[in-house]
Each structure stands twice: as structure tokens, then as C-alpha cells.
């Protein structure tokens, strides 16, 4: 069993930056693929980024060029650096972990991930 806890959210002005962290416990992350998702109130969660156990990262279109996913397996930590934030980025951000094949092609599918954190709120507003 893997427990995931996100942190780093908060209030930021448009154009600002935040770095989200996801701390894992219960198991090492070195062979897990990690997904970052976000969820608006009353909406389904949507993919933001995926970073495989190999270190290869993938991004949804709105995140590409602005967000950077990274991982530090020795610390059981994953990160999401978010730059040039806009009000549309306001959401609950969640990290998720999963193992198996096909993550390179299907990282964006929530059902690929077995373990989920509770999320950290990001609010972008003036």
C-alpha cells in the first residue's frame, strides 16, 4: 500500500509560480509511475502531467511549456513546478501512483493509477 500526501498549494497571483510536492510512504517509488491531475468543483479530474519510473515526463496541452514534473526517488518525492499561472489553473491538484505496462501511452487515464492523494488547493487570483 502506498500513501500519498500533496503539499505546496496556496494563493498566487496570475503570472506567478508554485511548486507542488507529493510525498509517498508505505513503499518506495522507484518503480512507480506518477500522475498529476487536477479537479474543478463538481467536475471530473483531468490529467496535468505524468512522469514515469524512467523519468520520462508527459504533459497535457495546457501544461506543456509551463509545468515541469520531476521526481526524487531517493526521497520518495515527486514535484510539479508550475509557472505563469492563470485563473484557469485554479483547482485541486492530486498526485497518483501506479504500476504496470502502457503508462507511456496512457498516463493520462485516471484508472491507470491505484493510489491517490487527497489533493492540495491551488488558487490563482488577483
Descriptive report:
The structure is a single chain. The protein is mostly beta strands and 126 residues long. Helices cover 3% and strands 47% of the residues. It has one helix at residues 103-106, and strands at residues 3-7, 10-12, 18-25, 33-39, 46-51, 57-59, 67-72, 77-82, 91-98, 115-116, 120-124. The strands form 2 sheets. Strands 2, 4, 5, 6, 9, 10 and 11 form a 7-stranded mixed sheet that branches. It has a 4-stranded antiparallel sheet with strand order 1-3-8-7, with no helix packed on it. It is globular.
Task: Calculate the mean pLDDT score and round it.
Answer: 97
Portion in beta strands: over 45%
Largest sheet: 7 strands, mixed
Summing up helix and strand content along with how strands pair, one would put the structural category as mainly beta
If helices are DSSP runs of H or I spanning 4 or more residues, what is the number of helices?
1
The total strand number stands at 11
The helix-strand sequence is EEEEEEEEEHEE
> Which oligomerization state do the chains in this entry correspond to?
single chain
Radius of gyration: 13 Å
Note the overall shape: globular
> What low-confidence regions span 5 or more consecutive residues with pLDDT below 50?
none
Helical proportion?
A: under 10%
Q: Give the termini separation.
A: 40 Å
Task: Name a few traits of the molecule.
single chain; 126 residues; 1 helix; 11 strands; 47% strand; globular
Short description:
The protein has one helix spanning 103-106; strands at 3-7, 10-12, 18-25, 33-39, 46-51, 57-59, 67-72, 77-82, 91-98, 115-116, 120-124.
Amino acid at each position: 500500500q502506498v500513501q500519498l500526501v500533496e503539499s505546496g498549494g496556496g494563493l498566487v497571483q496570475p503570472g506567478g509560480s508554485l511548486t507542488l510536492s507529493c510525498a509517498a510512504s508505505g513503499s518506495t517509488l522507484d518503480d512507480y509511475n506518477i500522475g498529476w491531475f487536477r479537479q474543478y468543483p463538481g467536475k471530473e479530474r483531468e490529467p496535468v502531467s505524468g512522469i514515469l519510473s524512467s523519468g520520462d515526463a508527459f504533459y497535457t496541452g495546457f501544461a506543456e511549456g509551463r509545468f515541469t514534473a520531476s521526481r526524487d526517488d531517493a526521497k520518495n518525492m515527486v514535484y510539479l513546478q508550475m509557472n505563469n499561472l492563470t485563473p484557469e489553473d485554479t483547482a485541486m491538484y492530486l498526485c497518483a501512483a501506479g504500476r504496470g505496462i502502457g503508462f507511456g501511452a496512457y498516463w493520462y487515464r485516471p484508472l491507470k493509477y491505484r493510489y491517490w492523494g487527497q489533493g492540495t488547493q491551488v488558487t490563482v487570483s488577483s
